[in-house]
Amino acid sequence: MSISNKKLNDLFPGSVVRKDLTNRIKGNASVPTYVLEYLLGQYCATDDVDTIEEGVQMVKDIISRHFVHRDEAQLIKATIKERGSHRIIDKVSVKLNDKLDRYEANFANLGLNKIPILSEYIKSYPKLLSEGVWAIVTMSYKPVEGRDSSPWNVDQLKPIQISSVDLDNYKEVRKSFTTDEWVDLLLQTIGLNPEEFTNRSKLLQIARLIPFCENNYNLIELGPKGTGKSHVYTEFSPHGILISGGEVSKAKLFVNNSNGEIGLVGYWDVVALDEFAGKSKRTDTGLVDIMKNYMANRSFSRGTHVMQAEASIVMVGNTDHSVPHMLKHTNLFDALPKDYYDTAFLDRVHAYLPGWETKKLRNEMFTDNFGFIVDYLAEILKALRKEDHTKSYQKYFDLSSTITTRDKMSIEKTFSGLVKLIYPNGEFSMEEAKVLLDFAIECRKRVKDQLRKMDETFNDDPVEFEYRTKDGKLTQIETLEVMEYGDAKLNILPLAKRQVQTSSESATSSANETVLAESTSKEKRLEGFHLSIRDNQTNVSYKGLFGDYLVGATEYVIRDPYVRLPYQIRNFVELCRLIAELKQEDEEITIELVTFNDEEYLESSRQAFEELADSLETLGIKLKYSFSETLHDRCIDMNNGWKIILGRGLDIWQKTNGRYDIAEIYQEKRLCKEFDITVVRV
Questions:
Q1: Is the pTM of this model over 0.70?
Q2: C-alpha–C-alpha distance, residues 305 and 654, integer Å
Q3: How many domains does the chain contain in total?
Q4: Domain that holds residue 568
Q5: What is the pLDDT of residues 84-133, one digit of tens each?
């Protein structure tokens, strides 16, 4: 769903920017996105093309004249000396020099250290004392005498961030958007093209923002490389920091007991640990124990004093094995260092995002449409940290009484974060709440299932991850990967095998009651069923879904209004191949396709169908096709007594990653779109 750029600029004047402009300007400069978009928001917050071009040029000039490149540091220093003063853009951090009783600034790119800075800046921007902030700084140079004096002076410093936002207006304007529009806007804000993502994939991307709006939220995401797991924590917000997992220490993260300095959790809203996985990685002694306490109670010790902080902890890393391998042989935490491979530690994790569901980022997955200036949304989310929506689902649903306190808190915090992101005004329907609650429960269940495999004591008090509506309707939640592949260690079969097993058990029961001839056909043992397939589900094929029900038919009528584009025709060809595989050699089969077409694709479709008909004829299959302008139903009618009703028709898979992606020839490896299938006797 495309959102009008005019609508965005009218409703959020000065707070939205076209997202492709950032890459146009960035070049080789190592400037965070929120820095560039802050500047773009000053000069390019419009949909007027000419104004945008002028603004882009202005921002380029600012970056060119004021941004400090490391290799040009000496030139900038000389410029400041010769001119007397000069504005620069650099990352500034501050330390207290207690011997001289003054604060001293360090400039990351300029290379200047121990430059005196007024304490008023520290009071206004305390994050200067931790890892520093990007800022526009007016520097001056005045020769001085004395060993402890510096000729360099900080005349003015302004962090590159929005100073204030109107949260009430933000909530009110949200009412002008549908849920789909708002989700797409959030996706565009982090630079992604909504058209390339399914609803579930969008939710996975948005969930990465929960730590920015939910206090003390513990999130882990493990998956393949190249899926953008760490991107949002480096580029999205000045209130978050990304550090390498190998650089984490007690002193850096919590408190340095030798000098009393507070660590990162005291200054940042989000502390993300990158490259967190890796079995061979060594960890700081005792760090895990401190993290356990902080993640559970948001407290840590400073000498004899107990301190509290509100920073959320995010852990991102790469997996070593495929999901089916981990489910069968180990667990989904398999890639973690041994010190973190601790059930008490992992039980503190509120949500586990399945990074393997996220596609590797390609050029077409980035947007050139408008989204919020990331710093604007970052400030909104910071303001929303003060609000609490953890219990708001209760007006519609009641969680199972078997869910433990820790599990419940985890589910509620995830739900609350998603509400803040998608429904900041707190207004949502039961159907909308269900989507968020299902997702929140699944994210926590993924953690709990792995803990059950790692430590059998977690099975002593079984937890049913389910809930009821106020009228008593029960919903049970499963993780998508277990539905696809099952879990041998938990004795759970894949969903497809469960369906087959159900049919088989039914047939066995029937056979015990009635003496059947040995020649009883497989077709007679089948039963009708209804199945819902979820976004991003894999291990799904035409053969696995309904192959058994095609057997015995000699006439097939396939009704699908959308068999026109190349990939849609490919799906139809694959169905014809399956029918050919299942037929007896001496059988003659008729396949009739009823679809809809328009002028643009009519000729190419006719040509494709004629070529297919010629090739099928040699296999004893006659293909007929016709076009209907009123066609709506999507189904397969057969003369063997079965009818297959396809909610989405044959178009059940998402776009693959290209012609050389194995999924192009391997249906089970394709990501599914959400759809229903019903098989009934007729």
A1: yes
A2: 54
A3: 4
A4: 510-681
A5: 999 999 999 999 998 899 999 999 999 999 999 999 999 888 888 876 88
